[in-house]
Amino acid sequence: MTQGLILDAPISEEWRRFDAAPLDAIGASPRGAMPDVSAYWLDLPGPRLLFVDGAFVADASAPGPLEIAAAPLQTPANRFGTAGGGAQAGYILHLQPQAALDGPVQVVHATTGGIAHLSSKIVMLADAVASLVETHVGAGWSNASLSIELHEGARLMRAVRVHKQAGAHTDHCAVSVARAGSYTGTALVTGCRTARIETQLALTGEGAYGEAGGAVLTRGDENIDAATVIDHAMPEGTSRQTWRAVAADLSTASLASRAQVRRHAQKTDGEQSLRGLLLRRSATVNLKPELEIFADDVKCAHGATVGELDARALFYLQSHGIPEGPAKALLTRAFVADALDRIGDETVRDAFAADADKWLESAL
To answer: Could you read off the pLDDT of 37-62 as tens digits, one per residue?
Structure first.
């Protein structure tokens, strides 16, 4: 039973918003047919990895420089790392100094039921450059762990989209960024009965940059929780946490962002922006920005707002001939784009925007 692993331990403040109740039933669901994942590959060069129910599918993949690992990797354990007792699969990417891949690493993780684990590791040496696009689809419960180690001047863009069709997804990512390195992570989560996206980002070198954010879209009785922590451990670090939540029906979206500035991390520049949009007053959005500052020469700011669509803007669009449904979709799309536009690659950004548009068409 997965329930003992999740609910018997005391619930910490960081996990208070996560809905663990459906995990036992979702994790016990039977396996089904392999879904068609062809539509999820982006027309970009670079390595492609397909995992189905936690197993690597070699004949549908092109690993390139990536090493495929059939055994559990030495990645930070998330709370559900041994749930269900299932085997773990994953990949290892190790880039030499100044290395750059031809295109993004694309990883599609499809589940047909039950529980599937994916445990992976990325190490990028000085001035290496790469991008990563992860897609989680299907039914059942997918559980992902990723450890990222960025050395001096290394840069990584990570984009994650989750479409689980009433399934569950848990995602734990731990990142360390050395001097002058850069990490940008953006997530789009739709369709999960319950999900948690967790990022722990440590800026361990001077002048390091870290960004974590994205969009959470909920409807029905879904409950999606996103939590990020950025630890400023050295001077002149910069961080951005930009999250948007859209909730409809009886659903719940929860966003929590915390920035920690240590005593000697002077000249830190940190910003948090959490915004929620209620499509129905029966829905719930929880926002929790948090700053923990021990240095005195910093520039840190946070903001959190929850509201409904602007009635005046909606009236303006309708008065210019746009029907109510498309007008609401336009305003909601602009609200979500505020977070998704931070994706640097145009093809990846357009794919995420199309996913959000598809969700809006069915939710409004």
So the answer is: 999 999 999 999 999 998 999 999 99
Distance linking the first and last C-alpha atoms of the chain: 37
Estimate the crossing angle of helix 324-340 against helix 311-319, to 10 degrees: 120
Nearest CA to 156 out of 120, 188, 123 is that of 123
How far is the C-alpha of 323 from the C-alpha of 90, rounded, in Å?
47
Residues of the chain with pLDDT under 70: 1-11, 70-78, 81-87
Contacts of residue 339, Cβ cutoff 8 Å, sequence gap at least 6: 186, 213, 214, 215, 242, 243, 244
DSSP code string of 306-334: EE---HHHHHHHHHTT--HHHHHHHHHHH
The rounded distance, in Å, linking the Cα atoms of 52 and 36 is: 11
Return d(Cα 156, Cα 99) in angstroms, integer: 12
Residue with tokens 């002058």: 180
CB of 281 within 8 A of CB of 248? no
d(CA 288, CA 275): 10
Identify whether the C-beta of residue 198 lies closer than 8 Å to the C-beta of residue 174.
no
**Residue 64 token pair:** 């390139």
Q: Are strands 252-261 and 67-69 parallel, antiparallel or unpaired?
A: unpaired
Please give the Cα distance from 217 to 294 (Å, whole number): 35
346-363 vs 324-340: helix crossing angle, rounded to 10: 140
Length, in residues, of the chain: 364
CA atoms within 13 Å, Cβ hemisphere of 275: 15
Measuring CA to CA, which residue among 12, 112, 14 is closest to residue 57? 112
Secondary structure (3-state) at 124: strand
Q: Which residue has the tokens 């990563």?
A: 132
Kindly report, residue by residue over 247-305, the tens digit of the pLDDT: 999 999 999 999 999 999 999 999 999 999 999 999 999 999 999 999 999 999 999 99
The residues, any chain, with a CB within 8 Å of residue 344's CB and separated by 6 or more, are: 131, 157, 184
